[in-house]
Design brief:
437 residues; 4 strands; 4% strand; globular
Length: 437
């Protein structure tokens, strides 16, 4: 009797592809993180020569220790996240949850929509609980150890309750509508669902600044008359208008500083963290704002939005195809519903698998982001005070404990902003010592 040659089924090919991609992604991330730890630790005991007159050794060592602690926590999260992903997929976690909900909902409703919605909710709740220990550790242990955390247990709980409330208030109707669209619009459901997601994204850009964000933070109009006059003049000089300048009480949660634009059209506003205003001089605030204006002047925000919408359209098209293939489900450890819809299953599996591609495409987007930062810096130097921007960035690097000596390869994969030596060296108005770094 002749043996029948073994053949790979489409389902087995899917399992093999997923496993190989997952292992490659984990190995790459582990290699990069360990490179970062070794490189930062190796340069911990000496401030780079270009910064010797600007950064104290103690501050440099704090930044190194903070970076290493973050990287090590990231390695633990990587290991845990990989185990959780395997648990949901090949080890049958999502299949078990789906079958349990199918059994409970059987005969209770004429539509499969409630069961699918329950699957999305159950997955989200379980995932949040699984990730909770790392979130708490990062806030109340790691950030606390380095003096950045200002979050109290009460404030954390209030934020959690508010977040849960708004997730239910906004997320549940949106998810139900998306599932209905997926089941009611035929073979092009992915195009209609993408349109729904794009419309919702634009809507959130309009309503979030004025309706949702103030429920979590306090936003007060900028009261410093001199500073307000300066930034108003800068925006007018650069051809920009804004609905207003606001100060956000970021200090009640963290010592980290930031400033940003938010909203669209008439709802666009400039927001300064109170921690930023406490750390920077008016000249430096002016320069930081000019940098943000540079992003708009060069069309970076619009370009990123167009890229995001374009890539998401491709992703939805791919989801539309794989969701019709039985091997997509069985290859990832999930038995598809034989008599009902698999839309929720397809969404969850796709959301779990797609991020693996980011491990390999990330450097392209990180490089583009760093290019945009250089362009925004150049715009700020041309329209504000270059020396002030340089000193502001130095203060922010110091106060946020950003390492001056990251691993170059790690930077190429993960850094959306250029490291300090590279960034400051490009500023013609920087101090001579830094400009020649």
């Amino acid at each position: 009797m002749q043996d029948t040659p073994f053949e790979f089924s489409p389902s087995l090919w899917m399992t093999l592809f997923f496993a190989v991609t997952l292992v490659a992604s984990v190995m790459l991330k582990f290699w990069l993180a360990t490179r970062q730890v070794r490189h930062v630790a190796r340069h911990r005991d000496a401030v780079p020569t270009a910064f010797a007159n600007h950064i104290a050794l103690a501050d440099h060592q704090k930044a190194a220790d903070y970076t290493i602690a973050q990287a090590r926590l990231g390695l633990l999260e990587l290991a845990w996240g990989t185990a959780v992903l395997m648990g949901w997929t090949l080890l049958g976690g999502l299949h078990t949850l789906n079958q349990a909900l199918l059994a409970w909902f059987e005969g209770r409703f004429s539509s499969t929509l409630p069961q699918q919605l329950a699957l999305l909710v159950g997955f989200s709740v379980i995932g949040s609980v699984i990730d909770l220990p790392f979130s708490l550790y990062r806030t109340f242990v790691l950030e606390q150890r380095f003096g950045f955390n200002r979050m109290t247990a009460k404030l954390w709980l209030v934020d959690a309750v508010k977040g849960l409330f708004f997730s239910a208030l906004i997320g549940l109707p949106l998810a139900a509508l998306a599932l209905w669209v997926m089941g009611a619009t035929g073979s092009l459901w992915w195009l209609w669902t993408w349109s729904l997601w794009m419309g919702f994204s634009f809507l959130m850009m309009l309503v979030y600044p004025t309706w949702i964000a103030p429920l979590f933070n306090q936003f007060k109009p900028l009261e410093d008359a001199t500073l307000k006059e300066r930034v108003s003049a800068l925006m007018a000089r650069c051809g920009f208008t804004s609905k207003g300048f606001y100060v956000m009480d970021g200090s009640k949660r963290s010592a980290h500083a930031n400033a940003y634009f938010t909203g669209l059209g008439a709802s666009k506003r400039v927001v300064f963290y109170d921690t930023l205003l406490a750390q920077l001089s008016p000249d430096e605030v002016d320069a930081v704002l000019a940098h943000e204006l540079g992003h708009f002047k060069h069309g970076h925000i619009a370009k990123r939005m167009v890229s995001l919408f374009g890539l998401s359209l491709l992703a939805f098209a791919l989801l539309g195809w794989v969701s019709q293939q039985a091997w997509f489900y069985t290859g990832l450890g999930v038995g598809p519903n034989m008599t009902g819809s698999n839309d929720a299953l397809a969404l969850l599996l796709f959301m779990m698998v797609l991020p693996l591609a980011g491990s390999f495409t990330g450097p392209l987007f990180a490089q583009l982001s760093r290019k945009h930062e250089f362009e925004a810096d150049a715009y700020a130097v041309a329209n504000a005070n270059g020396a002030a921007l340089s000193s502001a960035l130095l203060k922010l690097y110091k106060d946020n404990a950003s390492t001056l000596t990251p691993d170059p390869v790690y930077v190429k994969f993960y850094y959306s902003h250029p490291p300090a030596p590279e960034r400051l060296a490009r500023m013609p108005a920087a101090t001579p010592a830094i400009a020649t770094a």
